[in-house]
Amino acid sequence: MGAAIRRVAGTIVRAPLTGRNRRELMYCGFGGVAGLAGFWITVVLLLSGLTISVSVIGTVFGLVLITMTLRVSRRLGSLHRRLLKRMLGRQVEAPPPFQPGTGILNRVDRRLRDRPAWRAVWYALIKLPVSAVQLYTVMLTAFGLADLAYPAIWLLFRNHHGGTLSPLVAVVPVPFGGNIRVGSWLGAFPAALAGAACVVAAAWLARGINAADGRLVRGLLGPSSMAERVSELERTRALAVDDSAAALRRVERDLHDGAQMRLAALAMNLGMAREKLGDDDQAGDSAADNRASDNRATVRELIDAAQRNAVDALADLRDLARGIHPPVLDNGLASALITLAASSAIPATVSADIGIRPAPAIESIAYFCAAELIANATKHSYANQIKINIHTERAGVLVLEVSDDGIGGADAGRGSGLSGLAQRVSTVDGRINVSSPAGGPTMVTVELPLRA
Amino acid sequence: MRVVIAEDAALLREGLTRLLEDRGHAICAAVTDGDALLAAVAQHQPDVAVVDIRMPPTHTDEGLRAALALRQRFPGTGVLMFSQYIETSYSAQLLEGGAAGVGYLLKDRVANVAEFAAALQRVAEGGTALDPEVVSQLFRASRQRGGLATLTPRERQVLALMAEGRSNAGIAAELVVSGGAVEKHVASIFAKLGLPQDESDNRRVLAVLRYLGGKPQLQEG
Question: Per CB distance under 8 Å, which residues of A are interface residues toward B?
Fold first, then answer.
């Protein structure tokens, strides 16, 4: 028992002499100064940014200042991580790097949503009291060492004067109490003792505060927690889904305004040329007349062929564009489904009750699901009637139901179009449910969120 | 014929202008969006307006909305919708207020200049010009398929051409048969489908469209 106490006491007292203590104190010094500087930089930038952006004219400058704060806080964060690794050997992974967008607005927007940077701002603010404690340990050690040296200093500098000079003052920082006045060589020993106590206390204080700081760094400057990561991924996935929907829409519009328009103009010009040539050639009397007439007949044939090609190309492009993004989707899902139903080989009716309009990407997925399900029913079901119902539910869910009175037996697992549908639907966490007993009827329900 | 054109693609706008001027029609105005179209029709009171469906600013259905407004405010002006796509919901909205002076054609149809000009003429005179694509969608969507099944293939062809808005003479020319043969087919069709016989082309189109369920069924709720 006594041995154990001695061992613990020994560990406590010897702590200041270890190499680790040197490193802890060094970290306290550098980390404390960096933290203090970082706090003020962050506070000044952030406050001036916020204050300026309150006024309308200042909004732009304010935003610039705030985005600058966020950039700086990321830099400071990486400085803190490096200090921690270098001096205490504690490795904290860096958060994912900033993803700059294209265009100034997008860039600013992404800066402002940069979660790791905002967490670094929090760290800079919370670091203030931590820095204070860290710098205090450095000071405590310095004063303690000075006090510890007092007996030696007395011998070296004050010994020969006796007590005639003013007494030396040993400063012992709080909480170890005020100044000890030293009037004699023996009197220097209590000061030295107090100094030793300061050094020991500082060593343990440094370990404590650095452990806390390490935890803060890990929590605020490291990669985000799993939950945050998941929500981050969900957000970026939604962006990707929306982006691709917008891109497809753009492609369709480019086709419409470009190739389709030019082909229509080409068909029109060919039509005008064909008309100018006329239809009936009177057979001439001379051989030259006959030759000219033959030539005109050939040209007519060529123009007719060119015209047929132009019209066929227009039809092909129309089908292609529909497969990319049916233009009528811009008018809403109900309109698009009515057109879809009208082109179905099996009579199809549509009923729609859509409260809040879903995001374009969701509308597009619902539309292509309906198209695929109608095509499936046409191919396999031998049905007389298809019913399409689309409605929104209170919980922000879009429900598409496609049912037919056919022979049933549709199986999602058999590598049919249904598994492709399930894949498409799962990109937005949607669900698909197939009820198709042998003998029918078949009912496929697709549930989609209103936003990707 | 006095015509107003609304089409945002310069190539097609100029092409149409030239095509129609060549045939001796007067182009009162060629504009690029729906508001300008309404203003031009109000100013010139043309016989017919050729309207592209996708125009600025949103490039979705401006033309359709302008056309519906035209139908209400200027019933004397025929409206020919001119588009890259046939959308059932568009044709349904357009035909809601009757089939007189209404047309809906794919842009492809301008390849046959004579037919296109004839269709425009029909619409200007208060007739109907529906794209074969619109008609085949109506045939497919029709709830009266039982009735359609009783028709001979030739009669179905004639019915489709009637739904497009063609006159007997137009149908005869298209099918390369005599006018008398067409009249016989038409009488047989009307008898089989139980439709009232009517001499006027316009009311005949209406009867046929009504039979086909010209408006696709959309139950709200």
Answer: 253, 256-257, 260-262, 264-265, 267-272, 274-275, 307, 310-311, 314-315, 318, 321-322, 327-328, 330-331, 334-335, 338-339, 341-345, 347-353
